[in-house]
Amino acid sequence: MTGASEATREWTLAELAEIVGGDIRGNRAKTVRRIAEFADATPDSITHCSSPAQIKNLKNTQAGIVILRAKHLSDYEGDSIVSSSPRLAFAKVVNLFHPPDKCEWGMHGSAIVGENCQISSSATVGANVVIGHRVEIGANAIIGANTVIEDHVVVSDGTRIGPNSTIYRRTTIGKSCRFSAAVVLGAPGFSFEWDQSRWVPIRNIGSLRIDDDVDLGACTSIDRASIGETRIHKGVRIDNNCHIGHNVEIGEHTLIVANTGIGGSAVIGKRCVVGGQVAVKDNITVADDVVILGTSLVSKSITTAGTYSSAVPAREVNKWNRTLASLNHLNNRNQVLLRNNE
């Protein structure tokens, strides 16, 4: 069994190298008709070599064409495309072999549309979509089935919203965004105040703005601002099951991995990478070009670019128990020293 996926036609090594902007090594007329994962590659497929495990097994691959870096040419004698970024080049091949599905333009008969809406004739509105009043949907936008869009929402040209999503009022979405299923955008934030007897809800009357070319994974939620604006700048990539609190600002081209939570009014800089299951405290700032490793807790502002972590790696339970015992012993010793010095 193979993980290869067949295209609609064969492609030559020369054609593929020109498209991805790589150099040719081998038979220019060599053809492939499939893309494949490295371990499952077949003689009629193309794959890429990027990870240490792939590099280690490069000599054993059965792939017809491999995209690799120049420094690995000595480890491979077959037909190849030389690229400084094999994975990025491979992504272009994937899009070439399997272009995105095309939708049938138009409004599904079961869709409900409110008053004073502006919906482009080239937009696609799926089955059972509900659209409120004074909504704008741009050219070639796609609204997935069962999605609800409230009043005063803007969905700009070329944006795709997955099925079963909810877009709350006063949300503005830029051009060429790609949202997976069940995103929730512009919902009220988690705002409450204690009045000595109960938690009193604080109404959120702000808005949410998402700039151009933003990716959101399935079931991700971004809250609108309590007052003012929650802002996701252009080129941001957010994975599945993330939560972005009210009044958060995320800088251009930042990448956030799954199950991350960002507290209200936090500011994340440009070109940051936030690992999976990271928790960012409310009202703090993270500088540009910061990498936060997975499962970290960010409880204070980070003012300098670099790589940060607060996670404790998993280890065998007996070793972990000894580590905890050592920490407790050290803490008890410090307490004794403090008392002796009083």
Assembly context of the chains: single chain
Helical fraction equals 10-25%
Instruction: Tell me the number of helical segments per DSSP (H or I, 4 or more residues long).
Output: 4
Report the structural category.
alpha/beta
Strand arrangement in the largest pleated sheet: 7-10-13-16-19-24-27-30-33-36-38
Radius of gyration, taken over Cα atoms and rounded to an integer in Å: 25 Å
Q: How many beta strands in the DSSP annotation?
A: 38
Largest sheet: 11 strands, parallel
Whole-number mean pLDDT: 93
Question: Which stretches are poorly predicted, pLDDT < 50 over at least 5 residues?
Answer: none
Compute the separation of the termini in Å. Answer: 72 Å
Strand content: 25-35%
* Anisotropy-based shape: flat
Give structural notes.
The chain has 342 residues and is an alpha/beta fold. It contains four helices and 38 strands. The strands form five sheets. It has an eleven-stranded parallel beta sheet, with no helix packed on it. Strands 8-11-14-17-20-25-28-31-34-37 form a ten-stranded parallel beta sheet, with no helix packed on it. It has a nine-stranded parallel beta sheet with strand order 9-12-15-18-23-26-29-32-35, with no helix packed on it. The termini are far apart.
